[in-house]
Specification:
With 330 residues, the chain is an alpha+beta fold. 23% of the residues lie in helices and 24% in strands. It contains seven helices and 15 strands. The strands form three sheets. Strands 2-3-11-8-13-6-5-4 form an eight-stranded mixed β-sheet. A five-stranded antiparallel β-sheet has the order 1-7-12-9-10, with no helix packed on it. A hairpin with a 5-residue loop joins β9 and β10. 42% of the residues are buried.
Length: 330
């Protein structure tokens, strides 16, 4: 598909809403203040590949500060935002996602947060002195995401009865780690006709590549996940919670026990959505293979051996909706 510099509306597909009854009413909730058992988290990872965490200890103040900075950034004139783009892949991007022609009704900032200062990930805007309040909100937010990422991975390790709690969390710690942060803004979208129940594709269906993704959004819904029977359900928003989804790497580390969940975002014509997603990944040279501690006697790996760097490179060559683990399956 050849795309113009600025994809037109006709290139963005529309999504009809599932029935309201398909709101995910039974979304697993994990209370990090301790009342949830590690078994509950494992159950959620197997069945949905998705859950919500509450009482996570991340200050709402810090979250709101970063959200306010993001809103300020996205409200700047297009010509200003364009100075930080086009996303290659880091920096500001609009409508185009990745290099393979995926388009959606959104704009975003993609930041490699393991590079310090963050501006080294070639984002003009972050080098600008007027953005220091943005940088400082970002540092604070990323620090708490690093903690939350490890905390969740350690609770999963408990639930999987791994002897070493840090078996997974140690893969995502240290300066060599491949850490990415994404701020997405889905502006109000036009509807194809009056009374249409749904919206434009904001972010097309995909699975995430890292171990887990930590997502926080404002009070606008739009996120949908696919259940194991293929049905799409809406996830009610909760700006005070974090939503965690399992990514491809953790599906492999658990030899398919955990499910890398397909998800997508639908934009709407009433309220804009702002989401922030933290992806904490391993170093590029890290081998991604089923954890030996987890394998039962005689159990074979479902996947060929590959490194995180190899996986990322292969995945970036495919469209968003591709089943990217397929070439690595045995
Ligand atoms: C993503 C993603 C969802 C959202 O960035 O990978 O799935 O709500 N985003 O923006
Ligand atoms: Ni995603």
């Amino acid at each position: 598909m050849v795309l113009s510099a600025n994809p037109g509306l006709d290139q963005i597909s529309i999504i009809e809403s599932p029935d309201m009854g398909d709101y995910l009413s039974s979304i697993p909730i994990i209370d990090l203040s301790s009342s949830s058992s590690p078994e509950t988290i494992v159950q959620a990872c197997k069945e949905f590949g998705f859950f919500k965490v509450i009482n996570h200890g991340v200050s709402i103040d810090l979250v709101e500060k970063l959200e306010a900075e993001a809103v300020k950034f996205f409200a700047m004139p297009q010509s200003e935002k364009d100075k930080s783009g086009p996303s290659n892949p880091f920096g500001y991007g609009s409508k185009k996602i990745g290099r393979k022609g995926d388009v959606g009704w959104l704009e975003y900032l993609l930041i490699a947060t393991n590079a310090e200062p963050f501006s080294e990930s070639s984002i003009a805007f972050l080098r600008d002195s007027s953005s220091s309040s943005f940088s400082s909100a970002l540092y604070d937010y990323i620090s708490s995401m690093r903690k939350l990422n490890c905390q969740v991975l350690e609770l999963m390790a408990d639930g999987l009865q791994l002897e070493q709690r840090d078996t997974m969390s140690k893969l995502v710690q240290g300066s060599e780690c491949d850490e990415i942060f994404r701020l997405n803004h889905y502006p109000l979208c036009p509807l194809p006709h009056e009374g249409f129940n749904g919206g434009l594709t904001g972010f097309g269906e995909h699975t995430d590549l890292h171990l887990i993704s930590l997502l926080r959004s404002n009070s606008t819904s739009g996120l949908q996940i696919a259940l194991s029977d293929g049905r799409w359900v809406l996830v009610p928003s909760d700006p005070e919670a974090f939503f965690i989804n399992i990514g491809d790497s953790l599906q492999v580390l658990t030899n398919g026990r955990f499910r890398s969940v397909k998800h997508r975002v639908v934009a709407n014509n009433l309220e804009s959505r702002v989401s922030m997603i933290y992806f904490g990944g391993p170093p590029l040279a890290q081998r991604i293979a089923p954890l030996p501690e987890l394998m039962e006697e005689g159990e074979q790996s479902l996947y060929k051996s590959f490194t995180w760097g190899e996986y990322k490179e292969a995945a970036y060559k495919t469209m968003l909706a591709a089943y990217r683990l397929e070439p690595f399956q045995l």
